[in-house]
Predict the structure.
Amino acid sequence: MSRSSDYRTSAISAADGPVAVTGASGYIGSWIVRDLLEQGYQVRACVRDVNNSGKVDHLLAMHKQAQAGSLELYEADLYVKGSYDAAFKQCSAVIHAGAAVGYNSESPQQVYDGCFTEVGHVLESAMNSGALKRFVFTSSFAAVGHPRPKGYVFTEKDWCGDNEDGHRGGWSDDNIAVNRDIAYAKAKARTEKMIYAAAAASGRFDAIAILPLHVVGPLLCANHDQGWSWQNCIKFMLRGKPYIKSKGGRMLWNMVDVRDTARAHRLAAESTLAANESRYILSAMDRSGEMFTHQLQAKLGQLFPEIANIGGEEMLSGQPVQPTHDGPRSYALLAKQELGLQSYRLEDTLLATHESDVQLGLL
Ligand SMILES: NC(=O)c1ccc[n+]([C@@H]2O[C@H](COP(=O)([O-])OP(=O)(O)OC[C@H]3O[C@@H](n4cnc5c(N)ncnc54)[C@H](OP(=O)(O)O)[C@@H]3O)[C@@H](O)[C@H]2O)c1
């Protein structure tokens, strides 16, 4: 990561030219587009189908309402080599937030292999941009977490793949083909390293990764209510229903607002402190943003007293019936320190999530 003293930062500003966003129709991607527009950027929003109104109307509405910046839609597919060439031409930065996240009918091996195919295609088109300075990759906290004793606090120095023998070898490569979570985590970690290596070899741009944990906050269209997502779990809780997740949903929610997640991507592109291989965990800033499921249920109950029954885990006499999984613990301190990221209060995030669910007719 060390640079010679004459190195000029690769940090960008709106004056440096267009910025492209993959996965622009998605939950995180849409907020990245909105944030960039608000900051006056020329945004190239890459979507799979420019005519799919359920997925692009909210982007077109942003374009109409924008006080600053400009937005153009580009059609591209992560599985098609060269698909992003036109969209990325002369872009100063590419923010790669798109992914076939792997909760459809993909096998764990397809999740793993698919991530390399997708990242490979995007990286190749980005390197053909002619003006690329920053490549910001939406990786995941999954690329950080690995078996550690209860209470261990993860930082950006941790990598999924450390301590593979923890959990009796369950995290070894042998399990990529059979365990979706391990396939996803290892693919994110290894594609991150692949991007850093490509950036270092080229010497022309820096690559930075954003590592979100539980992303919650307002949805910009009904399609953001994907069945596997954390925002969808919140909707189920607000409907008084349990939700289906591993460990019966009994876990530590370590939350970050989707608007903060989006802003962190732009700040990473603009930061003069960030450099190739910089990675930023996005989670709670402190313990007030971490809650066990039953604590989150109680918080939602306080915020929405009109909802008679808040769902989540099974409770008896105010206590969870079964023990809760204590983890993952981590704090977004580096993002605060180096990117200057300020976070929404958790209460504001939950209120805004509920409000968007109501407005979109999801509740
Ligand atoms: N949400 C979280 O809590 C969380 C946490 C950690 C990391 N992440 C990472 O953040 C990224 C974005 O997640 P998200 O929550 O925003 O998911 P999302 O709402 O499902 O967005 C995924 C985006 O990728 C696009 N996409 C999927 N397959 C594609 C293909 N073959 N070609 C082109 N585009 C394709 C989708 O387009 P369509 O609209 O056409 O489907 C959508 O725009 C992912 O890499 C995910 O792993 C998310």
Q: What stands out?
A: The chain has eleven helices and 15 strands. The chain has one domain: 16-221+256-285+326-344. The chain has a mean pLDDT of 93.
